[in-house]
Automatic annotation (TrEMBL):
Gene: Exd3_0
GO biological process, one term: nucleobase-containing compound metabolic process
Gene3D superfamilies registered for this protein in UniProt: Ribonuclease H-like superfamily/Ribonuclease H
Name recorded for this polypeptide: MUT7 Exonuclease
Organism of derivation: Pampusana beccarii
Pfam families given in the database record: DNA_pol_A_exo1, Mut7-C
Alphabetic keyword roster: Exonuclease, Hydrolase, Nuclease
Residues covered by the 3'-5' exonuclease domain: 349-550
A GO molecular function held by the record: 3'-5' exonuclease activity
Amino acid sequence: EDSLIFLSMTMWFCVSQLKEEARRGFAGLEEPLAGLLAMLEGSGDWKGKGHSLGYCITTELQLWMEEHPAAQQSGIKLKKLQARVLRILAQCPANLLDPLISIYQLHTADRNYLLGHVSHLYHRGDYKEAAVLSIKLKLQPDQDVEKMCTPLLLQDKTNLVEDYVGDYPELQSKLLQILDTWCEPGFNIRDITSQYQGLSGYKPEKFNRKMLSKLVFRLLDRFNADPALCPNVVNQRHLRTLNYLFYKRFVEKTMTQENWTDHVQSTVGENRWLQGHLMQLLIRHCDLNTAARWAQRCNLPKEMLPYGVADELQKLQEQERVEEAAKADRYEERKKEDYYQLPIPRANIHFLQTWEETQRCWEKVLRPGQVVGIDMEWRPSFGMVGKPRVSLLQIALQDEVFLLDLPRLLEQAVTEPEKEKLPHFIQRLYSDAAITKLGYGMSGDLSSLAATCSALKDMDKQAQGVVDLLTVDKQVDVVSPEQSDEDRGFRQPEKGLSLLVQHVLGKPLDKTEQLSNWEKRPLREEQILYAASDAYCLLEIYEKLCKDPASYGLSLDLTGSLVGKPSMKPKAKKQLNKQEVLSPSGQQCEGHQKKTSCPPAPISPKEFSVVCDNMLQGLGRYLRCLGVDVQMLENEDDHRKAAEIARQEGRVILTSGLPYQTLRSQVAEGRCFSVNSSEKAKEQAVRVLKHFNVQVSLADIFSRCQ
């Protein structure tokens, strides 16, 4: 340490001496500006990266010139110096550009002369240097943006391209239009690349429509530009969305007909090019009847209709009525059997679109001691630019639910007092600690609320008295008595709030309306019931957990432990109830009255085989590095597959949270271990090894194929 201190002090002393000598040298020279150029021209030291001797002297002269303005040159002498320094700028590193431009006042030089010098660099093939110098001298408005940026894009220097147009909206628009032209169907990108054959650093694999499309959307977002500037790229994005919607509906079969129809109609709009592609997709995935329905809806001319579609147009109206009636019956029947049902009458769900209608809602909601369930809906973005804006705000009370049509209410607010009504109500609601607000993933909801109304941007910091049931979801450990393990057919496995509702209330939420177009009015009856259920179920979950928190592995003082600020992250550790005790490994053990058993005999990692649940893949990889025989579930695997593997292969199950209760009953005692999902993989591994007394030696590390 003493040597390092001595060395740093010596270096500091040397640099200080250098600066003093440089200043004495400047003062002794008749023309210090010419002297600096002579030094730079005669030395190659400054051409490398970092703080060279040339860099130190140049920056010191810049400071000295500010203190001695009389030493500055002008007229013919300055022009000659500027001509000399331009030759140096083409070779010097980036950190020397600004000092030299400042010292030799290049911003005052003849603009045509500067443009000519940059043009010379460009034609010499120094495209990056030409662009950097143009940016430093602010020459972009007098240059051809396509000519300057094309070779940079070919060399994958997109960041430099963004900097080149960064301060000039007109150039941003021109660049976006050029890039969009290159993405036009039928345009041959080779027509561009062939002009730059032999280009140094050319990366043809990165210069393609996919890369250009990503770049266009990044620039649209960064420059907040109008997407209408790029019809080809936007159309291609819409076409990809269209293909994705067909995949979700007809291949994966996870989107309802109503939601699919809304999104297809919104995506295609009145664009004839997209409507033509829609017809082709319909013929491929559906039948003539379905294609005819869409042809009718889009009002397509006959010349655009595929063969056979026109003949179906006469049969549609009656067929539609029959199908809709049958579908509605099936939907209602399935919902009542399989899904959570609202316990309040339909008449108690109020859809509010005027300020007069909201008055009664606000009076009831803002009463002290009130407990309210809050949820929000917005139109899915499908990868489009921008944050989602809330289309519907749901507020549930014990006996009724209010659905606030935010776009309509904000549209009606014309005067300043009217514009303040909604933000004022929401601020009062969230900041009042006497009102308990229930939500699920509140941070995401508040973020979207801020994007909808700028006056609410700091709402997450002001919120008090909130209970985020996403946090509870991470803490719940015991399956509700109403939970059924029977097979529910081929339905997708539940997750998120729907899974919590299933665990606590016995049946999951029907999420088929989740991907609805929530901006479209009027809302369908199915959307209204879905929105009301999403908010109201929070009240029922909270009430049940508060009545018997111990059955769910929660603290007896549930309200005290949960009420606070909204958060996306669960608490690191959960409080244990009276019937629980924490073992040294972190494993929850029931019945602390039982005597602690002797630790198992030590074993090596090679003798230890486990199966990791799909939320513990990081732990699985870590244990494998230590030589443990690990098998891991895939993301799409059901948790119960772990028990099947454990029984067949004699493995220990490693899991976390709710699945632990189900899995431990399916294997022998001590063959299922629950880890803390909030810990890092290394910490989890230490707990597992300690609990099972696995002794790791140096030879075990990486002894297995990774």
